[in-house]
Structures are given as structure tokens and as C-alpha cells.
Amino acid sequence: MPKATAADITALGFSAVQFGAPDDWAAYVAPMLDDAEAFITGEIGAAAYAGAAGTTLFYLKRAEVNFVASELWRRRAVQLDADLRLQRTEDSQAYLRQREYLAMAQAAEDRAWDFLSKVTGSLATGGVAVGVVQSGPFTEVNT
User: Fold this and answer.
1) With b meaning 16 or more CB within 10 Å and e meaning fewer, what string describes 96-121?
2) For residue 98, what are the CA distances in angstroms to 64, 84, 94?
């Protein structure tokens, strides 16, 4: 079960009206949340995902929310493009809005990766740094 919910996505300012007013907003967003969960679980492992608490839970939830936001911004850009093609108009303002939507999608994805890297970094090191020094019977030669 994803850490984020449809309410978290709505809190970002997305709504059903922006996507053709699907009857059930939660059902519309659920597959994207499931995809984000599956992706993140694949990145950090099922046990780490299921056992997340505290700050790690916060980071995982924010990563999911931002991955879904990225997908929603891309859908908005595609919808705008389709609307323009149906109207057969060359609207420079709409083109600029589409570029802005795609930039917002990339920014959301970047934020998602930032949050996920905070989790994967802490899982990988556990907060401990380890190093190895290897030497042999040879003396150092100054060159």
C-alpha cells in the first residue's frame, strides 16, 4: 500500500477538473500511487519500504507524491497538446504553458529523486563510513 494518498495529491493543487473530471479522483490517482510504490520498493527493497518510520517514512511519502505530481504535469501537457490539435490553432501562449507544465514535471521528478536519495543514502551506509587500507611488504618509492 502506498505511503501517499489521493488527498496528498489534491493538497498539491491537482483536481479532477484538470483531467477531464473523472468521477472518482481517488481511483484515477490510485494506479499512479501504486506505480510509485512499486518503483520505490524496487529501489530500496520491500522490507525497508514496509518498515519505514519517522523521517524515512516522510521522505518516502514525499518521493511518491512528487513522482505522481511529475506524471500529472506530463498528462496536463499532453492534454493541452491534444486540445490544441483538435482546435487546429497555433496558440503561442498555450505552447508556453505546455513547456511550463513539462518543466514542472521535471522539477517534481527531480524532487522525488532528491527525497529518494536521502532514503537510499541512509540505508546504504547506515550512518557509518568504512574504509580499507591495504599494504604490502614493499617500501614506498619517492619519485
Assistant:
1) eebeebeebbeebbebbbebbebbbe
2) 23, 11, 6
Q: Full-prediction pTM beyond 0.70?
A: yes
Q: Residue 105 in contact with residue 77, Cβ under 8 Å?
A: yes
DSSP, residue by residue, 67-97: HHHHHHHHHHHHHHHHHHHHHT---HHHHHH
Helix (H) / strand (E) containing 42:
helix 25-44
> Tens of pLDDT along 14-47?
998 888 877 899 999 999 999 999 999 999 999 9
Check if the beta carbon of residue 37 is closer than 8 Å to that of residue 46: no
Question: CA 17, CA 3: separation in Å to the nearest integer?
Answer: 24
